[in-house]
Amino acid sequence: MTRVRVRKAIIPAAGLGTRFLPATKAIPKEMLPIVDVPTLQLIVEEAVAAGIEQIIIVNGRGKGTIEDHFDVSFELERTLRDRGKKELLAVVERISQMVRIVSVRQKEPLGLGHAVLVAREAAGDEPVAVLLGDDLYDCDGRRPAIGQLIDEYERLGQKGVVSLMEVPVGQEQLYGIVSGKVLADAPRTMHIDDMVEKPAPGTAPSRFAIVGRYVLPAEIWDILARTKPGKGGEIQLTDALKELAQKGGGCYGLTVDGTRHDAGDKLGYLGANLAWALKRDDLRPGLLALMRRLVQEHN
Ligand code: UTP
């Protein structure tokens, strides 16, 4: 079998974002900013930094702002140029030059597995990286999260790899949970033998949850195409991954070396904004002073 490098990434961004209503009535949650950069742009930058050459964004209804954001904006660029705003111009121009981006439409949000499947034609049945459009990893100074998964995929002989996070007791029912065995020579990697999507309280096989990043071998396409609706009537990516783990070429989990922020959740989103702002010299001193004042006022 020919070995194909992971060159393409899919970013599902077609969910309804109900947890952020009313903000997400007209704006996709993936476009909500982390300080002044849309969440989705940070995720595209992660993929590019990991060596991805083409990005397929899965859009839903009313997601035109996503396409506009990554497209050239002649009027804005001309105005910035005329006004001599060179730095801002460079910031805006860089976005449309970053990487080749195509978008595909998921007509109805029928689940994450379905969102990935609608990108099949654009992906051309190749192995793919998948980065959820509302999940951020901060891996400053280290290999980007999706790059860590791609490295493990190659090291393991092109096997499926998903990112794992140990979640607090009682939160297992919010995630896809895996069970398996940690590798003796790689303590961050687990050979997965089972998976369950949102297990009922008290039934989870472990506290290791699948979160936001996946590298999938080309074998996943046929599996996804025959995956029936599961939990919540949605086509679950977890169900397809379970088949890959148990009847296909196998699946592993990697605990990424970095900090994950769930930007699809209110507290996670606020935390991501604070974490990214605190990294910036222009914002850190003012933000720390503001936080000290707010803590005092609310104590
Ligand atoms: P979520 O379950 O967090 O997204 O999916 P959601 O349904 O929009 O969120 P809430 O609960 O209503 O607030 C994780 C990622 O998968 C995408 C979402 O856009 C998000 O980036 N997704 C989910 C799709 O693209 N299509 C789907 O059918 C479901």
Structure report:
The protein is of the alpha/beta class and 299 residues long. It has one domain: Spore Coat Polysaccharide Biosynthesis Protein SpsA, Chain A, CATH 3.90.550.10. The protein has helices at 39-49, 64-70, 74-82, 86-97, 112-117, 120-123, 145-155, 220-225, 237-246, 266-278, 284-298; strands at 8-13, 33-34, 37-38, 54-59, 100-105, 128-131, 135-138, 160-166, 176-183, 186-197, 208-216, 251-255, 259-262. The strands form three sheets. The chain has a five-stranded mixed β-barrel with strand order 8-11-9-10-12. A hairpin with a 2-residue loop joins strand 9 and strand 10. Helix 3 packs antiparallel against helix 4 (86-97). The longest helix has 15 residues, at 284-298. The protein is globular. The model has no long low-confidence stretch (mean pLDDT 95). Bound molecules: uridine 5'-triphosphate. Uridine 5'-triphosphate binds next to strand 1 and helix 5.
Helix-and-strand structural type: alpha/beta
- Element string (H = helix, E = strand): EEEHEHHHEHHEEHEEEEHHEEHH
Ends apart, CA distance between termini:
63 Å
Number of DSSP E strands: 13
Side by side, the strands of the main sheet go 8-11-9-10-12
Mean pLDDT: 95
Tell me the name of the CATH homologous superfamily.
Spore Coat Polysaccharide Biosynthesis Protein SpsA, Chain A
| Ligand names | uridine 5'-triphosphate
What proportion strand? 25-35%
